[in-house]
Amino acid sequence: MVSHDPEKIFNDKIDREIKIEPEDWMPEAYRKTLIRQISQHAHSEIVGMLPEGNWITRAPSLKRKAILIAKVQDEAGHGLYLYAATETLNITREETINDLHSGKAKYSSIFNYPTITWADIGAIGWLVDGAAIMNQVMLCRTSYGPYARAMVRICKEESFHQRQGFDILLTLSRGSKEQRDMCQDAINRWWWPSLMMFGPHDNDSSHTDQSMKWKIKRMTNDELRQKFVDMIAEQVKILGMTLPDPELKWNEERKHYDFGEINWDEFWNVVKGNGPCNKQRLEARNKAWEEGAWVREAAQAYARKKASGTPSKGSALVAA
Ligand code: BYC
What we know:
Helix content is about 65%, strand content about 0%. With about 325 residues, the chain is mostly helical. The chain has a two-stranded antiparallel ribbon with strand order 1-2.
């Protein structure tokens, strides 16, 4: 017999790997969890443009500049898909963006660290985008349809980002002593914050259990972090560099690398808004929002004009 119990239909879809779509019934807590995670993800993409945008005018060649501009534009696109996916959950774009600007919503801790040298751009691509992909590949199979579909395209672009980061570091690692030192210094500064991107240990993660049951998350924070360490510990050898962890060691029994403990005080301090650049990042976003007011007003005026049927000057010119 066909069930009419919406909760049973929802659970059945989750069990059978059928995507949940915006018009489907869903538990309120599932909707809220998705709004929280997808909007925070969108905010991370947008705030993530700031540390890299900082280097566009100083990239060492025209080619590197063009590549970096394209990458930063990709991040804006990712933010846009993710804000659009959040809107399908019955919340407006204004509400989610206000939450970022007021400091209520979180965004990834990693973007509260400064980009001091050109090598930092390489380290962000290799380590930060690398950690992001590790997490996002599993999100292509997340149970909510619009989020899963957005992630497929995002992952394709992120893998290009990771390769461009590695390429920057590879070039530096084959350069002068100063360049090699700069490369190692960037790896030293970005390694631990990259590991923090995966979130607290599973035991301390408030959302993982429920999110795994709903198949929003497919792997836990610690599982993903371990996969990332195993990948990077091998790739760093190609650069001829080291990771700043004396406890990093292959464990033959576990078939994984062992690694040292993250400084969780530092992590929570950054998450709570007290990292090196939190204040600067929020100020920059608020300023961009205020300075972009005229663009939003112009777009609305154009939409009103179009809806009222008045031909715009542009279309008259095209017709002529
Ligand atoms: N930073 O229960 P937990 C990118 C919070 S950007 C800040 O484990 P959950 C890129 C967490 O929100 C990639 N906060 O949470 C862009 C929760 O607090 P609330 C960004 C963190 O959600 C530009 C509390 O700690 N990727 O690719 O099950 C340039 C307890 O945590 C962090 C995503 O956003 C953190 N690192 O798991 C380059 C992926 N970690 O919300 C690259 C989507 C934890 O209860 N998000 N918290 O107040 C996720 O996969 C999950 O949300 C997380 C956390 C794995 C991050």
